[in-house]
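--- STAGE predict ---
source: upstream dedup step, 1 unique chain passed
mode: sequence only
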Amino acid sequence: MWQVFFDLDDTIYDQAQPFKIAFAKAFPQIKIDNWNQLYQLFRQKSDEVFPLYPNDREHLEEMWIDRMNRTLSALNEGNKYDSVMILEFQKIYNQQLKQIVMFPEMRKLLVELRNQKIQVGIISNGSYEHQMNKVTALGLQDYVAKDRIFISATFGVSKPDPELFRKVGKEIGRPTDEMIYVGDNYLNDVYAAAQAGCKATIWFNHRQREIVNKPVMATLEIKTPEKLFQIANLVKNLNN
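--- STAGE serialize ---
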C-alpha cells in the first residue's frame, strides 16, 4: 500500500500570508512592490541558512536572524535593522503562524485519500516544537496520525539530504519505493525524494517557479490548489 507524505510549509497552507503581515508590521519603512517576489526571496534565504545551523532549539534564533539579514541585504536594506528588530518580526510571524489554515483543496484531498484507505503523513524540515505548533494550528491531527508526522530535528538530518526519507522509511517499516511525496520546493521535495527512491514525486508549484535544467522531473507538477485532486487520481492509478 502506498504511503503519501506531504511537506508542511507552503504545501499544506499558504505561508506567504503570515509572512506578508509580519513583514509589513515589523518593517513599515520598506516599500514592497512585489510581495510574491519578496516571499520567494525569503524562502530562498531560509533554504540557504537552514543547513548551516544545528537542527535544535538553541540555535533557532540565530538562524532566524541570519535569514532575515540576508533577505534585507538582498533588498539593499542591510545594516539598517538590528537583531532586536528582526526578532520582533519573528515574534509577529510566529503569532500569525498560529492562525494559519489549510488550503481548502488540500483538506478535500486529505479526506479523499482517507476514503481511499491511503495512509498519509508529514515530512518537514524544522525544529520539532515550532513545526508541531503549526500542525496543531492547522488541525492536521484530524487527518494525519501522530506517528506519521516526522520533523527533521528529531532525525539530525534535513532535506534536501535524501537520508531523511530513508530514515522515515525505516521508522515506519516501509521502503522508500512505496512512498509518494508532495511538496512545493523543487530541491528539497522533488529532487531529494527522487534521490531517496520514492515511487513518485509531486511538485506543488503554486508559486510558478521556473527551474532551468532540472536534473530530475517530477512525476506530476501541479500549479494551482484547484488541481490538487489530481494527486488522488494518481494514487488511484498506481493502485490499479
